[in-house]
Amino acid sequence: MTQSVLTRPPVPADPPPTPAARGRRRRGQGVAYLFLSPWIIGAALLTIGPMVASLYLSFTDYDLFEAPTWIGVDNYVTMFTGDERFWHAAWTTTEYVLVSVPLKLGLALAVAMLLNRARKGVGLYRSAFYAPSLLGASVSVALAWRAMFSTDGTVDRVLSSVGLDLGGWVDQPQYALLTLVALAVWQFGAPMVIFLAGLKQVPRELYEAAAIDGAGPGRRFLSVTLPMLSPVILFNLVLETIHAFQAFTGAFVVSSGRGGPSDSTLLYPLYLYQRGFTDFRMGYASAMAWVLLVVVAVLTALVFRSARRWVFYAGENR
Amino acid sequence: MTLSKRLVWHGLVVAVLLVLLYPVVWLVSTSFKPATEVISTLALLPRDPTGDNYAEVFDGVGEFGVLHYFWNSVVISVGAVVGNVLSCSLAAYAFGRLHFRGRGPMFGFMMITIMLPQHVVLIPQYVIFQQMDMVNTFWPLVLPKFLATDAFFIFLMVQFIRSLPRELDEAATLDGCGPVGVFRHVILPLLRPALITTAIFTFIWTWNDFFSQLIYLNDPEKFTLPLALQLFIDQATQSAFGPMFAMSVLALLPIGLFFLAFQRFLVDGVATSGLKG
After folding, report:
1. How many Cα atoms within 13 Å fall on the side-chain side of residue A113?
2. Is residue A30 located within the same domain as residue A134?
3. So what's the pLDDT on residue B270?
4. How far is B124 from chain A (nearest CA, A)?
5. Can you tell me which residues the record assigns to a coiled coil (chain A) (predicted)?
6. Structural class in CATH, domain B62-273
């Protein structure tokens, strides 16, 4: 397997320029902007412009048909003090992220370690485990999920046959969110593949040395595997968390876009969609988008800050 | 590992895989069950397999047959692939090889946009496309790809380009190639693996995409497979479950085929670059 960009040293951007290169460089400037022009247009018109515009819209009342009216911080005040569904959606999403991300990463690491025990012949298994990650984002699979977790669906029947008569999960507020968690965890293949690539990079000598020092499997996992894998764990953690905050399709399909039963699958992006594109409260939806951005940015920053304590880069002196 | 240990290992892995892939197998098998069997049995294999569900779907879901939606999905996905491969490779060459004022900050900004939740640009983008009369057309789903908005792929290609030996560029320059020539004759051919990875993932992600299509397409004539499926669920009574699953399977088919053909490529792409998949 090729070495992962996550674990190999960063590729240096440039060697020092030679005099001849410097001459070419001046000529190259215009061409460089030519190559970049699609990206520059896209960044300006579809990213920076819209970001500024949505920040502005978040301070307005805007229904898409009439010009936006400035209402100051009203949207934010309503959101934080007068909108129970907002808090409900925020809490549901928090629960979803807090449960699904650790489960998904835990399972990914466990299976990666299982696969890593074999010397060879892992390729096909690795691919098979990865398949759900490609399929899971689709409406098709969400539909299958909805059917399997409904009353008299596969899950209900299997659980009933062992005496656990819970009924259909998607119809009950206390279990509906779990179906979405299950759908997310089912796609553990992508982080697993990344973990597996990381595990391959751990030098065998470290395990041998630890074994000679009398470390058992548990000790070796805690003192060798986890520290050596910590940069990859950080990467997966950040990626999956950001990803989980934006989960939409499963919640939409399972609840026909309503977020039910009793708002139990009303994830934040789904509520944002309802506010913007069902109620046409575009100003309010923009405010929600900015709150989401700030929360995700702060969380990512916190994770990176904490990383100084727990992420270990090989070759670093401690 | 000893033989017995190896057997236990394979047994364990296969057992986990069976549980994992059960929903997919179930979906495919249910799509071949007659209406009476769809909800009444737990049996994995249809007792009385039938192609009726598929026949019904080809006949029409709403006003159109499944091929209509299939074609719409193909148009959008192929458009997105062409857009991403073109625009991202151009930008990646500039970031990876050329020198220009503002490269550092621009590169930094590009990296940040990889992490940016799309909701924060969603509404103004919608307003822009609405002003241009493009809502309910495929343009809002394809045009942004030609403007390199999927920054992740730029990053993927920049990493790849930086790992190519610079001597090749220099040799081409001595032979009289300008930056455009170096890009066409040196970088682009060598970039092929990264281009293929980009193409496959763009296709699959666009094919599966639901959110943007839901927002921009509202006329059933323009519907893609995911939207048609969603339409289907809302109208379906339990007797229509069979055809619905048949359509779900058809929607997964291209991804399945891509996966079988390129599985090594896809999985290595994830392993080396951390593509989220």
Report:
1. 13
2. no
3. 80
4. 5
5. none
6. mainly alpha
| Banded model confidence at residue A6, pLDDT cuts 50, 70, 90 | very low
Could you list the residue range(s) of the whole structural domain that residue A33 is in? 16-57
- First and final C-alpha spacing in chain B: 32
Please report, to the nearest 10 degrees, the dihedral formed by the alpha carbons of residues A250, A254, A257, A263 taken in order: -100
Chain B environment of A5 (Cβ under 8 Å) = 159, 272-274
CB contact under 8 A, A43 and B113: yes
How far does A223 lie from chain B, in Å, by closest CA?
Answer: 24
DSSP state of B133: T
DSSP B134-178: -TTSSHHHHHHHHTT--HHHHHHHHHHHHTS-HHHHHHHHHTT--
Task: State whether A38 and A175 are in the same domain.
Answer: no
Asked if residue A147 and residue A89 are part of one domain, the reply reads yes
- Give the count of Cβ contacts less than 8 A between chain A and B: 294
* Per-residue pLDDT reduced to its tens digit, B11-45: 999 999 998 999 999 899 888 988 777 766 666 77
Instruction: Say what the pLDDT of residue B198 is.
Output: 93
User: DSSP class of residue B222?
Assistant: G
Q: What is the interface pTM, i.e. ipTM, of the complex?
A: 0.91
Domain of A235, CATH number, reads 1.10.3720.10
Q: B225 and chain A: CB distance < 8 Å anywhere?
A: yes
Give me the residue spans of the domains in chain B. Answer: 62-273
How far apart are the CA of B233 and the nearest CA of chain A, in angstroms? 8
Tally of domains in chain A: 2
| Contact with chain B for residue A78, Cβ under 8 A | no
The structure tokens listed for B163 are 């790992």
